[in-house]
Amino acid sequence: MRLRLIVFEKAALPCAGIIIMKKNDLIEITVSDISVSGEGIGKVDGYTFFVKDAIIGDTVRAVITKMNKGYGFAKTLEVVSPSDIRVEPKCKEARRCGGCQIQCMSYQAQLDFKRKKVRDNLVRIGGFKNVKVNETVGMEEPFLYRNKAQYPVGRNKDGRIIYGFYAGRTHSIIETDSCFLGPAGAEKILNTIVLWMEKYNVEPYDEEAASGLVRHVLIRKSRSGEFMVCLVINGQRLKYADELAAALPFVSSISYNIQTAKGNTILGSETVTIYGKPYITDELGGLKFRISPRSFYQVNRTQTEKLYSAALEAANLKGDETVWDLYCGIGTISLFMAAKAKKVIGVEAVFEAVCDARENARLNNIENASFICGRAEEIVPQMIEAGAQGSAEKNIVVVDPPRKGCDEKLLLAILKIAPEKIVYVSCNPATLARDLKILCEKDYRLESVCPVDMFPQTVSVETVCLLCVNGDGSL
Ligand code: SAH
Fold it and tell me: I want to staple 212 with a disulfide (CB 3.0 to 4.6 A). Which of 17, 203, 261, 287 is the partner?
């Protein structure tokens, strides 16, 4: 590989002042921000670089891995001057693994970074000028917090069956025997599955050839220590299922999910239970929740309780409200709010999650919550058409959409409901800002913004926002 060190060889370069940088050149760069996917962002001669393995405040020597028209990518070779927020990562795979992008940042710096990220998005994308963002709600012990993980399974170069995590931006599997995010105890299950695969010649999936059977293992763990295991397979049937169940006597729900489509979507639509119940039950804020493999459920229990409490506090229910919980999943926020409201209407697209939500209302003896299956952007306009918002109702709307945010059709429908308050729970500050801009254009004002750290060691941040009616259009 031919390396040229740009900053140090400036004088030697032709074309007065213009530096032509190309792949494999070396640069020295100081990082001032972090991208959505966790790379450090910095500039060399006005040219922006996304630098792998560098955090805010670091000056690193890096090699250019790709050049695009307006920006480039580089990989850290050596930290020349470390940032004062740099810490030694706990995990030896932290650099290679795509799971934790900012494990080498002190936890307080991670929280500050997330608060700034929310504010920057609200200002840049949302156009909010004087927005006050609360301190990020953090964790006391920001490791081993996950109650769910999905492990890809494959073969390594030597042909051995391995499980692990994908390396950042790739589909090559990094073999890991322990992960500092959790769930604790998953390795024992994964090792047992590998032994079972070896014994019965069950092939792992080969992504390139689209052949083999076992693609992923999904593991969930409840607060009481109950485990659910679901093997995602590239086939219609799992042979030696009884032998697998016998090898995992401490797992209370074992199933397989059929996913024969190529691509990145982990789960297919059909799940077959091979042992135990088709779900596990967890406890949150004193409520019980049944969770099926395909249902969404927050992965960080401790922080979820704080997130939902923040949403509940924002809604500040008096008991006479109709709460619309849109994107309700298995009805967690709905049931948190039901005891304090007149009634709750949950809307959710995944059928199994709606079944879980109805069952969860029953499990907790909650009778004022109902759940509708369908896309919120289709269901809510239909409900308005049918007059569900009522002229005398006190409506509160809660939305908790996936990363892509709310469909504009839904935002317009929410404005038609004209709720007293809107509580927006978001996992993506960019789409949050885009959607709040629409909601706050006329009738609503942004009252509070509370980031919650649901995913320590990663760049993700969750936010609870309260919007109150009678905004004056000023942002
Ligand atoms: N509030 C829940 C779920 C949030 S995740 C919780 O805290 O657990 C977002 C949920 O929205 C997922 O359950 C997903 O299945 C659902 N979803 C995605 N697109 C949707 C749409 N267009 N309409 C309704 N629900 C949708």
Answer: 203
